[in-house]
């Protein structure tokens, strides 16, 4: 009797995906992610003091850029990359040559599903990106392409092929992604609810995009995934990923692309200081109320047929 094969399947999109990590500290958190991340190439964007040495665990394939590298590569245009803010990660999107990007914060760890099994967040993001989206008609069983699901009665057959997925937006257990006012009134709240669901965000609907657990198709939507200029010298903070999410969703709607949200979960380990966050956010709280109606009503020219042409 032949022995069962012990050869592990090749990691999905191993040569087509970069993992982008913004950081100011040693990347010890990668040890937990080693079983899932080690086959992939990492692009580490070091924020803050460029003279500080960032230690990366051995065995990872990576390139590391600090502020001196950003200034050298971009020259006078380097001011478009945020300083002292995690929005510096979009420099990694720019230097990548891969089709897909997964980005994660360095205070995010491997979560467990309700059965206690470690969640391979990267693998789930890849499955989301490789699976169609359904932005034009909502399926009440959520993602109809998942095992055990399908299109419900009354769903138009002409729309069941779906459209390409440009963005996979993952969620978080433990520390919720709250704004400062909500943090202040709910300082002890933790997200313990694991919802086993993925859904396509409908066309015409905006959403608050969190950048700490996010994947996207760089070829389809890369130029739109610019995390707004925040941090040192800027009047508003903590809206960099929101800006990218609003821009990206409007462009995806225009181009007929999909955005999925839900699985996978990561474990968000560290709550940021709500008083510091309030100082960064308070102007943005007013700003978004004026800005969102613009994104809700904007129309793009029909001759814009790619994210590059829209963004330019």
TrEMBL record:
Primary location class: Golgi
Location of this chain's protein in the cell: Golgi apparatus
Source domain of life: Eukaryota
InterPro entries (alphabetical): Nucleotide-diphossugar_trans, RGP_fam
Gene Ontology terms, MF aspect: UDP-arabinopyranose mutase activity
Cell wall biogenesis/degradation in keyword set: yes
A Pfam family that the UniProt record links to this protein: RGP
Keywords, sorted A to Z: Cell wall biogenesis/degradation, Golgi apparatus
GO cellular component assignments: cytosol; Golgi apparatus
GO BP, one annotated term: UDP-L-arabinose metabolic process
Keyword Cell wall biogenesis/degradation in record: yes
Alphabetized PANTHER family for the sequence: ALPHA-1,4-GLUCAN-PROTEIN SYNTHASE, UDP-ARABINOSE MUTASE
Family of the protein in this entry: Belongs to the RGP family.
Protein name stated in the entry: UDP-arabinopyranose mutase
Species assigned in the record: Gossypium raimondii
């Amino acid at each position: 009797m032949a022995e069962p094969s012990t050869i592990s399947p090749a990691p999905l999109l191993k040569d087509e995906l970069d993992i982008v990590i913004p950081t100011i500290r040693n990347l010890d958190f990668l040890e937990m992610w080693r079983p899932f991340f080690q086959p992939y190439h990492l692009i580490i964007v070091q924020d803050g003091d460029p003279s500080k040495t960032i230690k990366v665990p051995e065995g990872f394939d990576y390139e590391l850029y600090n502020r001196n590298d950003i200034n050298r590569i971009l020259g006078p245009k380097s001011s478009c990359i945020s300083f002292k803010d995690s929005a510096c990660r979009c420099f990694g999107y720019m230097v990548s040559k891969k089709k897909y990007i997964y980005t994660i914060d360095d205070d995010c760890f491997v979560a467990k599903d309700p059965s206690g099994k470690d969640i391979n967040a990267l693998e789930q993001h890849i499955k989301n990106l490789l699976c169609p989206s359904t932005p034009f008609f909502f399926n009440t069983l959520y993602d109809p392409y998942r095992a055990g699901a399908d299109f419900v009665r009354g769903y138009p057959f002409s729309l069941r092929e779906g459209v390409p997925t440009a963005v996979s937006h993952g969620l978080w257990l433990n520390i919720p992604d709250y704004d400062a006012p909500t943090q202040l009134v709910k300082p002890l709240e933790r997200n313990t609810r694991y919802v086993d669901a993925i859904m396509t965000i409908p066309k015409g609907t905006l959403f608050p995009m969190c950048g700490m657990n996010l994947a996207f198709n760089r070829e389809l939507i890369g130029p739109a995934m610019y995390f707004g200029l925040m941090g040192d010298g800027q009047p508003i903070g903590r809206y960099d990923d929101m800006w990218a999410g609003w821009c990206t969703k409007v462009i995806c709607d225009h181009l007929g692309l999909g955005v999925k949200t839900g699985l996978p979960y990561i474990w968000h380990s560290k709550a940021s200081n709500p008083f510091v966050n309030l100082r960064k956010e308070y102007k943005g709280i007013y700003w978004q109320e004026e800005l969102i109606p613009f994104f809700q009503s904007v129309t793009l020219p029909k001759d814009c047929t790619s994210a590059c042409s829209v963004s330019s």
